[in-house]
Design goal:
about 70% helix; about 0% strand; mainly alpha
């Protein structure tokens, strides 16, 4: 596994062996945890309004697309940060 992936999985709380110095951004009471719960609550209200029993395919597509974009942006920020540090130390 690439180090950037290990950092990302640790940050989002999905690492089986999280990195020691990387905080879980979704820890209980964190801004991310609160916003995630707000998203789930809004999703449930939308499901009820649309009278959808299970997941709504369009909403799932929106959420998954957002998560994919987020992961790409995080990886790019990580790469650029490493590159910047490397260039500053040369």
């Amino acid at each position: 596994m690439v180090f950037a992936d290990m950092v990302y999985e640790s940050l989002i709380g999905e690492a089986t062996n999280p990195l020691r110095n990387v905080p879980n951004a979704f820890a209980e009471g964190s801004v991310c945890a609160v916003e995630y719960q707000n998203m789930l609550d809004a999703y449930e209200r939308l499901r009820v309004r649309l009278n959808v029993v299970d997941e709504d395919e369009d909403v799932e597509t929106i959420i998954n697309a957002f998560l994919t974009m987020q992961e790409i942006l995080c990886a790019e920020m990580f790469r650029l940060g490493q590159e910047t540090v490397y260039n500053l130390t040369r």
